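hiii so my PI (J.) wants the whole complex modelled not just the main chain, which honestly fair. so below is everything: two entries, each one labled with what it is. i double checked the lines twice but i was tired so who knows lol
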Amino acid sequence: MYHIISIRDFERRELDYMLDKAEEFDGRACDPRALEGKLLALLFFEPSTRTRMSFEAAMARLGGRSISMDNVEASSVVKGETLADTIRVVSGYVDAIVLRHPKEGAARMASEFSGVPVINAGDGAGQHPSQTLLDLYTIRQSMPIDGIDLGLLGDLRYGRTAHSLAYALSLYGAKLHVIAPNGLELPAGIVSELDERGMEVVEYEDVNDIIREIDVLYVTRIQRERFPDTASYFKVASSYRITPDLLADVRQHLIILHPLPRAGEIDPGVDRLPYARYFEQSRNGVPVRMALLHEVIR
Amino acid sequence: MKKEDHVHGLVISPIKDGTVIDHITAGEALNVLKILGITGSTTECLSIATNVASKRLGRKDIVKIENRELRKEEVDRIALIAPQARINIIREYRVVDKKGVEIPAILRGVIRCPNPGCITSTNEPIESAFEVLPKGLHCLYCDWWITQDIASHII
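here's the output for the full assembly
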């Protein structure tokens, strides 16, 4: 049985295989009955809009159906049921489980109790592998991933999408340029692990110092709750804002990505520029998740 | 009784039945007891020698526990803080089994993950699992690393 738990479990050829597969499902006519008669469970213990909807859309486009646990408050979870029990029960109903849970390692544990494949849709500050695949997929639509210069901007301490993407890019010989507010830097343990994987990581204080030398700018949300007060949040957030002015003289092929939702990190004026790819990125969640579902549900 | 014990006088007397843990890293004897769950309130008859001269280690600690034979899981835990330790199982004053300690590749249920957000820190029916790597211990659930003061994380 094949679970999708962490991007760290993937080798380069497996990532490429999955991206190729997503491309097959994207745009071209795919078999709308490929997963007919199959049932997917969406277990979301934390709020999600796009991840959840894109998994549902992906399943529906392959002819499968989804069931979900809509309301955690109304479920047996509030009666004290463990996640392990919930997984054992639900895996008896369906052909695969998509799980989002606030605890790190929840999906890994779920895979040990499940009789069907588990796809991790985010476990606390941990992993969110389908997001990383769609990030890679979006980059690959514009340029070969090998050897790119990628700028990571925003909350790099808690941002799980940033960590997973950095790990994946280390398999492609990419160079990482990191720009983060004080206290929200990439954790030292991750930097040293990337270094061991042969990845060059360079830190900058100001995005202006590097914006003209990168191929991809990956922006993450700076969360207000990480700051002691609103004033210090706005001070930091405004200095990390991407505006059309900032993008003068950048590389012509630069693309800007964001896992969304954004909270003011990217000025809406940027949306009209050719660099903006975050809505395509979001849309790519469907073919990438179709590829994952098709791969794990046999 | 070993030759070293003779040279420095009889540090602690032989035991009839039980376990002798020899060649413990100097200063770790009390942590070894902690790992074994032996506290001042348990009933085991114990002898402890610390900073005893040792040819192999320079200084070492020795712990003798009467009427208790260590199990494999207990031995594995000791390996984390005293990798050179030797375990001698004693019956009727004779060494009937002698084993080194070996750090396993994966430690299950031995280390508590320090990450409060880790699924193993909840009431789920799972044991913690750490892989043992040169850099330290790596949680197989939440990817946290423990690189120092490993003894304080032992369950």
